[in-house]
Amino acid sequence: VQLVESGGGMVQPGGSLRLSCAASGFTFSSYAMSWVRQAPGKGPEWVSGITGGGSTYYADSVKGRFTISRDNAKTTLYLQMNNLKPEDTALYYCARDNGGGTSWAEYDYWGQGTQVTVSS
Question: What is the DSSP string of 43-112?
Fold first, then answer.
């Protein structure tokens, strides 16, 4: 199993970024997937999840600003982030949800992370 994130970077408040997570080594469409972030000095925070069938879930802190999606044919997970705020600054990970739901500690495979920095 391999998960490789990309798309992070530095952006001004109010800006947008689109993260991607290329998945391989398993039947992508059979698994829910999630995004988890970790800010400096803080613990991991679940951000958003999507089932294999496309049902989506969001943390209250990002609801209305972030959109999770997946392309099962391309085995890729996405996170569109709009109206970014300084408090969104973190290392963003994609992870395979092996039944944990919003409990990131239950996720069995993680990518290496991509850094998102929101600063003026």
Answer: -EEEEEEE-TT--EEE-TTTTTTEEEEEETTTTEEEEEE-S--GGG-EEEEEEEESS-TT-GGG--EE--
Residue 53 CB burial class (10 angstroms; 0-12, 13-18, ≥19): exposed
Task: State pLDDT tens for residues 96-107.
Answer: 998 888 888 889
Torsion of CA 19, 24, 30, 36, to 10 degrees: -40
The tokens for 69 are 């999606």
Structure tokens of 14? 């109010």
DSSP 3-state helix, strand, coil percentages of the chain (rounded to 5)? Answer: 10, 50, 40
CB 116 within 8 A of CB 7: no
pLDDT digits (tens, 9 = 90+) for 46-98: 999 999 999 999 999 999 999 999 999 999 999 999 999 999 999 999 999 98
For residue 8, give the 3-state DSSP assignment: coil
- What is the spatial distance between Cα 84 and Cα 15, in angstroms, rounded to a whole number? 5
